[in-house]
Specification:
The chain has 154 residues and is of the alpha/beta class. It contains 8 helices and 3 strands; from the N terminus they run H-H-E-H-E-H-H-H-E-H-H. Strand 1, helix 3 and strand 2 form a beta-alpha-beta unit.
């Protein structure tokens, strides 16, 4: 909410999506948000691909989405239990396709131009700081994605 208020006059009037614990998005909502967005931000728990059906994602065509930012890979006791219960019903290969590099490749194959993704598990606080830096540089300062990621790496 703080970020939405900070960037309201610049960009966030045009933003749509699911915030906080409003509800768990359905597969149809994920698809609608991905296909109708020029940029997509996921800020959540566990692997992004654990929230989206793999077979539906690979069938999608999302060339309008120029940027996907995945601030995922945060784990809590509750999220770990959910993901463990979910993973029981998946093959080893399905779980492997949910890893960061594979997720970036799949999104790229669906038409996404640029994917920014986490490589390792992290904390909510660290992702909040990353989000703050990303949006400050991309939106306020007008830096490119590459320039912003170089700043974030430091």
């Amino acid at each position: 909410k703080e970020i939405l208020e900070k960037y309201h006059d610049l960009f966030t009037v045009q933003w749509e999506g699911v915030i906080g614990n409003m509800h768990v998005p359905s597969q149809a909502e994920w698809e609608q948000l991905l296909t109708s967005s020029s940029a997509f931000l996921f800020y959540g728990m566990e692997r992004f691909m654990s929230h989206v059906l793999l077979n539906r994602l690979v069938a999608m065509n999302i060339p309008k989405c120029h940027l996907v930012i995945l601030l995922d890979l945060v784990r809590s006791q509750q999220s770990y239990q959910r993901i463990t219960n979910s993973d029981i019903h998946k093959s080893y290969l399905q779980i492997a396709l949910e890893r960061p590099t594979e997720t970036a490749m799949l999104l790229s194959l669906t038409g996404v131009s640029c994917v920014v993704a986490m490589q390792w598990y992290t904390s909510l606080q660290e992702n909040a700081e990353r989000l703050k830096i990303l949006l400050q540089n991309l939106l306020s300062m007008g830096r490119t994605t590459g320039q912003t990621l170089h700043i974030l790496q430091k």
